[in-house]
Amino acid sequence: MSDPHPLTCANCTIGNCSKLMKSFPGFCLTTNAKEGIVDDVTKRYIKSPKDRKIALAAAEIEGSYYGRATRVEEILLFVKKMGYKKVGVATCAGLLSECNQFAKVAKAKGVDVYGVACKVGAVDKTVIGLTEEQKISPGSHESMCNPILQAELLNEEKTDFNIIIGLCVGHDSLFIKHSKAPVTYLIVKDRVLCHNPAAALYGANAYYKKLLGPELPSPSK
């Protein structure tokens, strides 16, 4: 019988797979992986020109700009290195200012972006089954986030690469699922922590000790 709670990389504090300077823990996925899977997957990078090009570009940028380039700069470096011509942006409507600023930065580097906001289509949330009581402001029009339409509009534009700016959890999943072009993140939404979700993890042993308890936040209403 398999262990219902197996130890994985989520439990590792060694990270020997990075530089092979320590010892692998007994539960390491590198040493305990199904026979042949590491070699089989490695061959995919060689057999697939598209996957190999992306992997090489990412690794080359990491090596050349480690600790020097911001996420914004790394994205633009990646776009240039990949030779992408059309870059799409799926943005949260609440982060249009950040999207506008990114578009200006990208244009200064010779990269034009085609942005689509999450409320595109202006479809009321009740259309998909949300009740009026579940809205932020019951009784008023509230457009649903529409990540599938965002993806389809960018697909129609035949974008080579798409960037997410602050889509909600779940909405981002739908966008990634329906986007035909490869996708990366620029901003990960966290309304409480100014879009810096890692801060909650850094504070989990201090100010955010509540995270280590079983409770999740209560709804506001």
Note the topology.
Blueprint: H1 16-19, H2 29-32, H3 37-47, H4 49-65, H5 71-82, E1 87-91, H6 96-108, E2 113-117, H7 147-156, E3 161-165, H8 171-178, E4 183-187, H9 198-202
Parallel strand pairs: 1-2, 1-3, 3-4
How does this structure look, described?
The protein is an alpha/beta fold and 221 residues long. The chain has helices spanning 16-19, 29-32, 37-47, 49-65, 71-82, 96-108, 147-156, 171-178, 198-202, and strands at residues 87-91, 113-117, 161-165, 183-187. The protein has a four-stranded parallel β-sheet, sandwiched between helices. Helix 6 (96-108) links the parallel strand 1 and strand 2 (113-117). Helix 3 (37-47) packs across helix 4 (49-65) and helix 4 packs across helix 5 (71-82). The radius of gyration is 21 Å and the shape is globular.
Instruction: Give the CATH topology of the domain at 75-189.
Output: Rossmann fold
Ends apart, CA distance between termini: 44 Å
Task: Identify the strand order in the major beta sheet.
Answer: 2-1-3-4
Structural class from helices and strands? Answer: alpha/beta
DSSP strand tally: 4
Largest sheet: 4 strands, parallel
Which of globular, elongated, flat, extended, rod-shaped describes the shape?
globular
- As an assembly, this protein is single chain
Q: What CATH architecture of the domain at 75-189 do you see?
A: 3-Layer(aba) Sandwich
> CATH class of the domain at 75-189, please?
Alpha Beta
Proportion of helical residues: 25-40%
Q: How many alpha or pi helices?
A: 9
What is the N-to-C order of secondary-structure elements (H for helix, E for strand)? HHHHHEHEHEHEH
